[in-house]
């Protein structure tokens, strides 16, 4: 089984995020493997361990993403590929990333591709489906269980808290939802072995792409933090007056009705 | 070997030699692998151990055993075990990072530390081939757990005064051990004990004793002030039958093992103290942001900022100093050939080389930890006194650190004691340097440091070392062999030297960071350095004065005091303002950050 996992380096959103000059302040920020991608890595390794094959993790981003790829190797992936766009691209969006990944994946004859349901930074959830679409293979999003028998795949996916059972066949792209598995820690022997595993670095030119081929289709206008949560207000008086007051406030202050 | 080691930094030499920043190891030098190892350890502690702490505190030690096996699966027990015996043979920095990250687990970190450190290391370093093959693979996985039995009811600091005896049986097959070893960490579940006993009541030696051997038993679980998550019991040896091939190291050379293992235990404790202090700091600053009084988060009060600034600058010093020492070990140990590693003697020599640094890390860092947990409770106010707050446990857990692995008093006495020994053996030209300093005093002109970053701090470090040398030289000259009775003076000298080591460690670390990434990214480090150096130097001045007055009198005292005034002349920085400034980033990050 030839398995690929698409992996993004993201901010650890459990840490404090600060914004300065319209950009997220990366000073002192912690970076991690996007947790949804990590479910993908874990599942890919489990499938490989039971069915044989090879797991390759792929990331599009800056040279710094090497750390997250090494972590995936330490967890148990076999190979890693970093498509480094640091020198070629100022900005990019979901289209950019998907286009680059497709160029890379096209001749790889992947049986199964894992992506995260969403990345916890941008949260668009687009890259996985876009890649599948451009490769012309089916995809199933937000999966919580996957079983493979031969070329047949049985999947349970999360649908707004309920679940849906789907039958599909390889080749296939799936996006991982929380609950798919409990990712393991990279063990110390795993970390030491990861040093010696292959990590290939590519640039756009290696994929016969230039920046115009992958130019972003969208523009980020502004980045801002959600407004600070304010303390609630408790209305008093007769219930009827409270209701009137509430409607009034929802209309004039919160402006939601 | 001589070619390889001549470039190595000698133990204790920092006092009389300058070292450039590129020769010291700093936390900014961690490799990606080391960071990953630290992260795995942290995740293990937070996700696996922390949820069980309440049970562990209630002495449910079957959980400790399971957790240790789980740690073994992750490789967290094999860092110091050679690969051929199932370990990972990691570098000393990785091993230290594991200890640092474990610290958050409180008493459980003591179980872990006792197993991988004092429990397993004697066999790693001093075991023969058969012993290593027999014990290490199971210790590296956690299938078997280890403990270390040195202390006895009547011999603590005086370890060699042990009363436990060993005598060879008539058949010549077994040593028969009799005695009691007290306060043995992991005794509740350990399978293997490294036990010290005197063969025929005279020859202090080490033995590997299995729990299953006939005549081996343990007492009841002790009721302790802190680290309750660790098992502590008496090991009772009543005609315990120990096969003669379980003699560890050489006959009558148990002290070589005991003292070297203590050295490692000491710097490891220093590392653990950094981890514990960082956690206590995090609890304190989070609480200070959360807790409102007078409609203001208490972190916004200047007195809280003062506390946070002081705590963090001390943690920075403790971290810089101990990882510098770890770097010294790594440099020296990594240059040993495979044969030398196999032969315990060279390893022991490498460890003994940095005995001074190990002792200083031990007492300095454990006192930083104690300071930080104490202020942590204070910031929590009445809530800090309540057991439902983690800081309450941290406060209790901290206290033992100043006592075990050699009390801080013993470790202080060891500093000047070891210097004198090194000087007498010709390993360090201490007397010559002290002599040269006396001459320098006569013609010394006061200096003005420049105003570029770190200029003042470098100047203070230089003078701090001279003050240390002056005080030590004077005391040695005055008392000669009787110096060892002047314990108060010795302790003052140890404090001066230790503060100088910590000051130099922060200055070199900050300098290295600035060289690498520029001043802008290292402002916080600079603030800690300025705060710490000023406060440590004030303490040095005070210790030196007290020492001079105790040692000299009359004209000689006046002359010495005037020399001290020259060495201490400087314009102090405004530490109040610096602490306020340093606290801002800490309050924002809600944890210790550099």
Please trace the helix and strand order of chain A, writing H or E for each element. EEEEEHEHEHEHEEEEHEH
Counted by DSSP, the helix tally of chain B is 21
Oligomer: heterodimer
Shape of chain B: globular
Average predicted local confidence, pLDDT of chain A: 93
In short:
The complex is a heterodimer of chains A (257) and B (594). Chain A is α/β, with parallel strands linked by helices and 257 residues long.
Essential attributes:
heterodimer; A: 257 residues; alpha/beta; Rossmann fold; 2 domains; nine-stranded mixed β-sheet; two-stranded antiparallel sheet; 6 helices; 27% strand; globular; B: 594 residues; alpha+beta; Butyryl-Coa Dehydrogenase, subunit A, domain 1; Butyryl-CoA Dehydrogenase, subunit A, domain 2; Butyryl-CoA Dehydrogenase, subunit A, domain 3; 4 domains; eight-stranded mixed β-sheet; 21 helices; 10% strand
Description:
- Chain B: GO terms for molecular function: acyl-CoA dehydrogenase activity; flavin adenine dinucleotide binding.
- Chain B: Residues 147-239 form the Acyl-CoA oxidase/dehydrogenase middle domain.
- Chain B: It catalyses: a 2,3-saturated acyl-CoA + A = a 2,3-dehydroacyl-CoA + AH2.
- Chain B: Residues 463-566 form the Acyl-CoA dehydrogenase-like C-terminal domain.
- Chain B: Keywords: FAD, Flavoprotein, Oxidoreductase.
- The complex is a heterodimer of chains A (257) and B (594).
- Chain A is an alpha/beta fold.
- Chain A folds into 2 domains: 2-214, Rossmann fold, CATH 3.40.50; 227-257, no CATH class.
- Helices cover 27% and strands 27% of the residues of chain A.
- A 9-stranded mixed beta sheet of chain A has the order 11-10-9-12-8-1-6-7-13, with helices on both faces.
- Chain A starts with a strand and ends in a 5-residue tail after the last helix.
- The model of chain A has no long low-confidence stretch (mean pLDDT 93).
- Chain B is α+β, with helices and mostly antiparallel strands and 594 residues long.
- Chain B folds into 4 domains: 27-145, Butyryl-Coa Dehydrogenase, subunit A, domain 1, CATH 1.10.540; 147-252, Butyryl-CoA Dehydrogenase, subunit A, domain 2 (Beta Barrel); 254-408, Butyryl-CoA Dehydrogenase, subunit A, domain 3 (Up-down Bundle); 412-589, Butyryl-CoA Dehydrogenase, subunit A, domain 3 (Up-down Bundle).
- Chain B is 59% helix and 10% strand.
- In chain B, strands 1, 2, 3, 4, 5, 6, 7 and 8 form an 8-stranded mixed beta sheet that branches. In chain B, strands 9-10 form a two-stranded antiparallel sheet.
- Chain B is globular, with a radius of gyration of 24 Å.
- The two termini of chain B are 38 Å apart.
- Chains A and B meet through α2 and α5 of A and α2 of B.
